[in-house]
Amino acid sequence: MSLTHDAAVSPSAGRRFRAYTTKHLDELTVRAGLGAEERLAVRAVANVLPFRVNSYVVDELIDWDAAPDDPIYRLVFPQADMLPPEDVGRIADLLRTDAPRSELNRAANEIRARLNPHPAGQMELNVPKADNDEPVQGVQHKYAETVLFFPKQGQTCHAYCTYCFRWAQFVGEPDLKFASSEIDQLVAYLRQHPEVTSVLLTGGDPMIMGEGVISRYIEPLLQVETLESIRIGTKALAYWPQRFVTDPDADETLRLFEKVTAAGKNLAFMAHFSHPNEMAPDLVHEAMRRIRGTGAVVRTQAPLIRTINDDAATWERMWRDQVRMGMVPYYMFVERDTGPKDYFAVSLARAYGIFRDAYKNVSGLARTVRGPSMSATPGKVCVDGVTEIYGEKVFSLHFIQARDPELVGVPFFARYDENATWLFELEPALGATRFPYEVPSPADTSALADPARA
């Protein structure tokens, strides 16, 4: 791998990382042309949902002349109507009267509790147990061959996306956090479960950690013979590409990546790009060149988000640019049923139309992408299309992944509903009274049941 920096990069490339938080919101939203009451409403939302941005995003990615309608601005800055008006008004009144922090926190927590902070049973159904029947901290094991690990030091990001389904990790409430610093416990679990061939480091963002920290998590995994791949879920390539180019430990980080591939493991760098503008800076291209030089494979994924990327042209451009840069388009997700979901959600019917209109215009190299996909309680459900069977208009669906592996790849059908935005809003079609995942399974009756229908 060449660690030389050949590409021309922006003047801000070598600057030290600077984060902006809620206390900076007023001065930043002034730049977007918001009035005093609008700024107060934004601050109210930011006291319930997390806000964090950095100097690179502010200086290089946001078009302030187009704000607040600029898509990158909307990706990272709270919007006044992301929460119900009565909730925004309640928090705004507390801010206006300089209420005690304890009172603000109490009100914010009441609102958060209604926002489904842990979708898909991730705190109940997915946490495995060790031989001593104790939970394996910071680990989720939903699908037989894959486990997710949440490093304790990686439970933040270079900047927060307003739509993030893991928003509960970032609001400072210990009861909502899910993480561990015990890599030995994970390694022991992997040795006891050779069916697990892939570990996904996630969070937050593992790439917020310095090389000295992240290596303490990754290097022990290289000794697990049954492990075939290590994935790193990250937004760093979009929000702080300096991490791989000019940061003090950029070269050491890339050498760590080389260790993974040299050990015979596949290193899958799962890059989150929500809009093609995030890939435009030269610094991103240079970071991509260096990451690919380690032998890592860069795969891309993002949710479909109303007001930000809910048109086919944006996705077509994004997938084309990703292929051109050597990335592998992987997933288009449906916005999860958590947080300000009602603000960002796109109907499944429209989501399928956007996916198809973009998919039909790209080459086969970009058709590695799957979607629109819902990461729901029983598994990852893909909307394959809208069709008519025996005079009934239906959604055609299948599981890409499932708690019950026997469901994977088997088509099933739901009544067409032009307003439905999530799996559990759908009803069985063609005379069926239950979906396949609702039929009790000897393997795991409780996990396959939909709590909403129980």
Describe the structure.
Its cofactor is pyridoxal 5'-phosphate. This is KamA family protein. InterPro entries: Aldolase_TIM (IPR013785), Lys_aminomutase/Glu_NH3_mut (IPR003739), rSAM (IPR007197), rSAM_sf (IPR058240). It is a single chain. The model is unreliable at 443-454 (pLDDT under 50). Helices cover 30% and strands 17% of the residues. It is globular. 43% of the residues are buried. The chain is of the alpha/beta class. Strands 3-4-5-6-7-8-9-10-11-12-13 form an eleven-stranded mixed β-sheet. A two-stranded antiparallel sheet has the order 1-2. The chain has 15 helices and 13 strands. It has a domain at 19-113. Strand 11 (379-389) and strand 12 (392-402) form a beta hairpin.
Structural class: alpha/beta
Poorly predicted spans: 443-454
Q: Which whole number gives the mean pLDDT?
A: 89
Helix content: 25-40%
The backbone outline, from C-alpha atoms, is globular
Largest sheet: 11 strands, mixed
Protein name: KamA family protein
Keywords: 4Fe-4S, Iron, Iron-sulfur, Metal-binding, Pyridoxal phosphate, S-adenosyl-L-methionine
Cofactor: pyridoxal 5'-phosphate
GO molecular function: 4 iron, 4 sulfur cluster binding; catalytic activity; metal ion binding
